[in-house]
Q: What sequence folds into this?
């Protein structure tokens, strides 16, 4: 009895800090956000009166207006662009590190070089692109030195291009890591078997390697998309007058300058619901391909 009781005590003792942490920093804040979204913003303070006005204000808009629902759609477009670019860049790099480098030491070195941007401050990385893409930046200096242009070009900075470029640079390591892990876990005997059956490297890639690496691709793409949807700093620093307002910037504005917490909470809940739906869908797809991976290993 004492032994059984001590085991239960240890089990619950280990779980207690995790549960407390989740309650204090995840469940209670989200519940508080949800409650605020149904309250009314008064003249001097938030009125604890139930209303759906915040959600009605968000969705009841006319086409062509600058209302948050259209900003949300534009943010979705930017996040999707960032995701596609990050996946296209990360997958060949992860494939090269895993299959192109035979020496284990060099493989580890290249992997560390690929993820080392994670050690650099987000703000520093975002500001560095203003130095690269600015009218007197590195890119314009190179173009003038090469004789491609006679004067600085202002089209590289303060638009969607600069925002997407910075986000892709920032989020590529997040996409690369699950891709590399997924490629690394592919059994080498499956690749050898494919080659023994007469498949060339291209056919082996599309029939064996790529399908088995899809869970990592889906995970990395999900990271890139969700992080891009919630990014407010890169658009603010690099977006300029036309591209600086994304959905996260509006939420920041409501909790800051506008002091309309219920409306900001409602927008935050909408974003949270969209992200949860996305995670549920990608989770099902990833689970499907993971089952294929397990079946392939058993075979």
A:
């Amino acid at each position: 009895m004492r032994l059984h009781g001590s085991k239960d005590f240890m089990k619950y003792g280990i779980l207690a800090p995790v549960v407390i942490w989740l309650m204090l920093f995840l469940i209670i804040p989200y519940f508080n956000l949800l409650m605020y979204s149904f309250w009314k913003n008064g003249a001097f303070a938030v009125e604890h009166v139930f209303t759906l006005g915040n959600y009605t204000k968000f969705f009841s808009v006319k086409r062509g207006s600058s209302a948050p629902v259209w900003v949300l759609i534009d943010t979705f477009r930017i996040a999707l662009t960032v995701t596609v670019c990050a996946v296209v860049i990360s997958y060949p790099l992860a494939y090269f590190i895993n299959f192109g480098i035979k020496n284990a030491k060099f493989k580890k070195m290249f992997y560390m070089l690929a993820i080392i941007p994670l050690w650099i401050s987000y703000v520093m990385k975002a500001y560095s692109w203003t130095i690269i893409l600015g009218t007197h930046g590195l890119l314009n200096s190179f173009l003038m030195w090469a004789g491609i242009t006679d004067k600085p070009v202002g089209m590289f900075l303060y638009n969607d291009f600069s925002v997407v470029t910075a986000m892709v640079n920032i989020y590529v390591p997040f996409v690369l890591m699950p891709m590399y892990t997924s490629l690394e876990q592919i059994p080498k005997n499956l690749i050898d078997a494919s080659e023994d059956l007469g498949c060339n490297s291209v056919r082996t890639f599309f029939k064996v390697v790529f399908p088995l690496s899809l869970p990592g691709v889906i995970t990395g793409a999900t990271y890139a998309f969700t992080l891009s949807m919630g990014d407010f700093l890169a658009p603010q620093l690099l977006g300029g007058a036309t591209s600086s307002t994304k959905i996260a910037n509006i939420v920041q504005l409501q909790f800051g300058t506008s002091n309309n917490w219920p409306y900001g909470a409602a927008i935050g809940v909408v974003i949270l619901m969209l992200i949860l739906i996305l995670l549920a869908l990608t989770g099902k797809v990833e689970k499907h391909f993971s089952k294929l991976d397990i079946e392939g290993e058993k075979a």
Summary: The chain has a mean pLDDT of 86. The domain at 63-297 is CATH 1.10.3720.10 (MetI-like fold). The longest strand covers residues 40-41. The CA atoms of residues 59 and 84 lie 28 Å apart.
